[in-house]
Design a protein that fits this description.
By secondary structure, the protein is α+β, with helices and mostly antiparallel strands. It has helices spanning about 15-25, 75-80, 85, 90-100, 100-130, 165, 195-205, 220, 290-310, and strands at about 140-145, 150, 155-160, 170-175, 230-235, 250-255, 255-260, 270-275. A hairpin with a 6-residue loop joins strand 7 and strand 8. It is globular, with a radius of gyration of 22 Å.
Length: about 325
């Protein structure tokens, strides 16, 4: 987890990951399938939420640019939040230590983007190595992140809330075997991290266990039209006694976002129409004209929560 591991003097963690990938490929059995999982720790902040340290040759990258702040990084959006969100860890730790001044925001964001650029470069070097070994045309690459990050949105930071900037992540699937007509797609289906394991098994022509959550993304990668999920359940019950993390759960559909904070009384609810309010700033939970939608999503949240916990809800 260190940017410059003591076990590899003088080398940045991104470089170490490339070398470890090459070592794996050096010993991968020929003529047999293999699976290489690479987790780039360097994109995570340093100890205590502070600091991003890129590779030395990238430390001046973006120096002359001004990184734009998110559209919701304004006091009016922060002031509109309920009191318990204004004092949660997303404000007190992340915002307070990373983005509290414009100068600090620019410094942190540029360092962050430098680290991301370093990871992009490392992935490029691994792909070059696959090509050199003659493996590029038969290797599927699945690229994704573990979570999104609030980078000043609503004058908050971190990743513990269920706004789209936290729960949405990049997902790229590169399969050199698919026909030209299926390449370069941007699918709109709701893909989840639980889909990755069944996708990898499916692509390897291995059976997917019946009890495994998620669905293979392979049909989407091939450009097929298939019946697909219309919503999903998400939650965050992470707890640190010395800091305040809200207990939160919700359901997101292709259009609506419903969330409820279960550790405040009464329970606080949010309802956003993502078609007209992609930034999630207008809470419709108390709007009479959306009462039926709210009730439907409450029930659906209960159903999905029951399925996830193994205790189905019976209406």
């Amino acid at each position: 987890g260190q940017y410059f591991p003591k076990t590899h003097p003088g080398k940045h963690l991104n470089q170490v990951m490339v070398e470890q990938a090459r070592e794996f490929l050096d010993h991968a059995p020929t003529g047999k399938p293999w699976c290489l999982s690479i987790s780039f720790k360097a994109l995570h902040s340093g100890k205590g939420y502070l600091g991003y340290e890129a590779e030395p040759d990238l430390k001046q990258l973006y120096a002359e640019l001004t990184i734009p702040a998110p559209p919701t990084a304004k006091p009016e959006y922060f002031d509109a939040l309920p009191e318990f969100l204004r004092r949660c860890n997303a404000r007190t730790s992340y915002w307070g230590q990373q983005f509290s001044t414009p100068e600090q925001y620019q410094s942190m964001m540029k360092d962050y983007y430098r680290l991301i650029t370093g990871a992009d470069r490392a992935i490029g070097r691994i792909r070059e190595d696959l090509a050199r070994r003659g493996l590029a045309d038969n290797t599927v690459i699945i690229f994704l992140s573990d979570n999104g990050d609030m980078l000043g949105d609503y004058m908050l930071g971190g990743k513990q809330l269920l706004f789209d900037v936290s729960i949405r992540v990049p997902l790229l699937v590169y399969d050199p075997r698919v026909p030209q007509s299926a390449r370069g797609q941007r699918r709109v289906e709701l893909a989840l991290n639980i889909d990755i394991a069944p996708t990898a098994l499916d692509l390897a022509s291995a059976p997917v266990p019946a009890g495994m959550q998620g669905h293979s993304l392979a049909p989407l990668v091939r450009g097929e039209r298939v019946a697909w999920r219309q919503d999903f359940f998400s939650e965050n019950n992470f707890c640190v006694p010395a800091q305040y993390y809200p207990m939160i759960e919700g359901v997101r559909t292709t259009r609506w976002k419903y969330t409820r904070y279960t550790d405040v009384h009464p329970v606080y609810e949010q309802l956003f129409d993502l078609h007209t309010d992609a930034d999630e700033v207008t809470n419709l939970a108390r709007a009479n004209e959306h009462a039926l939608t709210l009730a439907d999503l409450r029930r659906r949240c209960d159903e999905l929560r029951g399925e996830a916990s193994g205790t189905p809800v019976r209406q």
